[in-house]
Amino acid sequence: MNTTATVQHLEGTDFQKSRGFSPAVITEGGKTVWLAGQTTTTDLEGKDIAGKFDEQARTIFALLNRTLERAGGSLANLADARSAPFWHRRGGVQWAEPAEAGR
Predict the structure, then answer these.
(1) Cα angle at 83 between 48 and 7, to 5 degrees?
(2) For the chain, how long is the longest CA-to-CA vector?
(3) Which of 10, 17, 89, 14 lies closest to 56 in space, CA to CA?
(4) What is the torsion angle, in degrees rounded to the nearest 10, for the CA atoms of residue 96, residue 98, residue 101 and residue 103?
(5) In CATH, what number is assigned to the domain containing residue 70?
(6) Residues 6+ apart with CB under 8 A from 92
(7) Inter-residue long-range contacts of 26-35, CB under 8 Å, 24+ positions, other chains counted
(8) Among 9, 11, 6, which residue's Cα sits nearest to residue 27?
(9) Please, which residues have CB within 8 angstroms of residue 52's CB and are 6 or more apart in sequence?
(10) 23 found inside a domain
(11) How many domains does the chain have?
(12) 35: in domain
């Protein structure tokens, strides 16, 4: 059996391009979207949220959702989400779970 997979890289922001990564890679043969790291110090309206962990976590998941929407899905379609540690200068490592981000 010869199976050909297709791969699509979503174009990133200028920052993501400068760091050499795509915000998501989509593979098909059954569709899988692989998300890359995301960070921000401004909310969706451009307001400074530097040092505000909760607001940054909510904004990051909103940005991940936007990326998923570009790929035809949303956070609701996640089959597996691994929490990533976020380093918070004042409190050490904290964790943000996808389910908590929308609250």
Answers:
(1) 90
(2) 55
(3) 89
(4) -120
(5) 3.30.1330
(6) none
(7) 26/71, 29/3, 29/4, 29/5, 31/72, 33/68, 33/71, 33/73, 35/64, 35/67, 35/68
(8) 6
(9) none
(10) yes
(11) 1
(12) yes
Question: What's the pTM?
Answer: 0.61
Q: What is the pLDDT of residue 102?
A: 43
Q: Identify which has the larger pLDDT, 20 or 42.
A: 42
The answer to whether 23 and 37 are in contact (CB under 8 A) is no
Residue 4 has pLDDT above 50, yes or no: yes
Q: Hey, what's the torsion of the CAs at 58, 36, 78, 59, to 10 degrees?
A: 10
Backbone angles phi, psi at 58, to 5 degrees: -60, -40
Is there a domain that residue 1 lies in?
no
Residue type, 74: S
